[in-house]
Amino acid sequence: MHFLSTADRAREDLDRLIGSALEFKNGLNQSKPLAGKSVALVFFNPSLRTRASMQVGIYELGGNAVVLEPGGTSWTLEHREGAIMDSDKTEHVAEFVRVLGRYCVAIGVRTFAALKDWEAERLDPILNAFARYSDVPIINLESAMHHPCQAMADMMTIREKLGEGRKKVLLTWAWHPKPLPMAVPNSFALAAAQMGHELVIAHPEGYELDGELMAAISQHAKTDGGGKVEITHDVEGAFDGVEAVYAKSWGSKNFYGALDQDVAARSPHRAEWIVDEPKMARTNSAIFMHCLPVRRNVIVTDGVIDSPASVVIDEAENRLHVQKAIMRELIH
Ligand code: CP
């Protein structure tokens, strides 16, 4: 079975993975399920946390990481079915993943949105091509639409810092000079709903998340966790009484393929849409969360990210533990 999105897993599976990650973190699980085995890590895009935590995690589980960068340390890759490959792509995903599957017991892949064509990219075509052709588990290390390993580390961090049970959590858009992909906010909101948290999503008008995903989030909130979801454009009121603040910038789906229009549309929001001390003072002593990398004094002030409320480094550490739990579950 692949690990492409938390939507593929039931609430109890997510709880079990977090429990397993806590065992790794607390030194209660020293097992080496990857002894004598290799895992491929395929990066179409840059990374610090994902790459380092996956390489270290595979090592700590007794295995070997094979890191590949298509177009750099491996051939350029075509993913479209039926493509006539007479242009710049050298190898098809169909061969790439099946060859890797002869050497490796799982394949992790990072493939960001290009922010060019919303209708195509919202379907995660490259990730899904990997999943379609692969005989070994595919682990999503951030695709156009999902970053489930990040979301699992986020849910683990909320549980560690705030305890078990329903919390009031805010996902807030923040101004950034460039439009960014939506995978992190999508997966955070989805996982928070699955875990039963009371979720507030704040963003300026025009920066709505995908409609189909929002419908799934609302459904998960009702059926999985019994939480609720509120959407607001009130950048200050959104902070009232929340226990966790998750900041992230993302691009508008209305401007895929026209990023200069997004830059112009977001420019009036620069002064207001930043996480600062006055906004944090409205919360219920909230923790501050961000997936990193973060632009200081753009997304969040130094005063907030350097305060005791900030848990961003623990959140990054938890990537290691939760990914070990995911690999232990997937790889036999
Ligand atoms: N949060 C995260 O995925 O970080 P990297 O992009 O550095 O891997």
Question: Could you describe the 3D structure shown?
Answer:
- There is one protein chain.
- This protein is α/β, with parallel strands linked by helices and about 325 residues long.
- About 40% of the residues lie in helices and about 15% in strands.
- The protein has helices at about 10-25, 50-60, 95-105, 120, 125-135, 150-160, 185-195, 210-225, 260-265, 275-280, 300-305, 310-330, and strands spanning about 40-45, 65-70, 75-80, 90, 105-110, 140, 170-175, 200, 230, 245-250, 285-290.
- A five-stranded parallel β-sheet has the order 9-8-7-10-11. A four-stranded parallel β-sheet has the order 2-1-5-6, with helices on both faces. A two-stranded parallel sheet has the order 3-4.
- Strand 1, helix 2 and strand 2 form a beta-alpha-beta unit.
- The longest helix is centred in the last third of the chain and has 19 residues, at about 310-330.
- It is globular.
- The mean pLDDT is about 95.
- Bound molecules: phosphoric acid mono(formamide)ester (CP).
- The site of phosphoric acid mono(formamide)ester (CP) has 9 residues, from helix 2.
- Phosphoric acid mono(formamide)ester binds next to helix 2.
Give the strand order, joined by hyphens, for the main sheet.
9-8-7-10-11
The molecules bound to the chains, other than polymers, are:
phosphoric acid mono(formamide)ester
Radius of gyration from CA coordinates: 19 Å
* Global outline: globular
Through-space gap between termini:
11 Å
Number of helices: 12
Q: Helix and strand string, N-terminal first?
A: HEHEEEHEHHEHEHEHEEHHEHH
Sheet with the most strands, sense and barrel status: 5 strands, parallel
What structural class do the secondary elements suggest?
Answer: alpha/beta
Beta-strand percentage range: 5-15%
Low-confidence parts: none
Mean pLDDT: 97
- The count of strands amounts to 11
The percent of residues in helical segments reads 25-40%
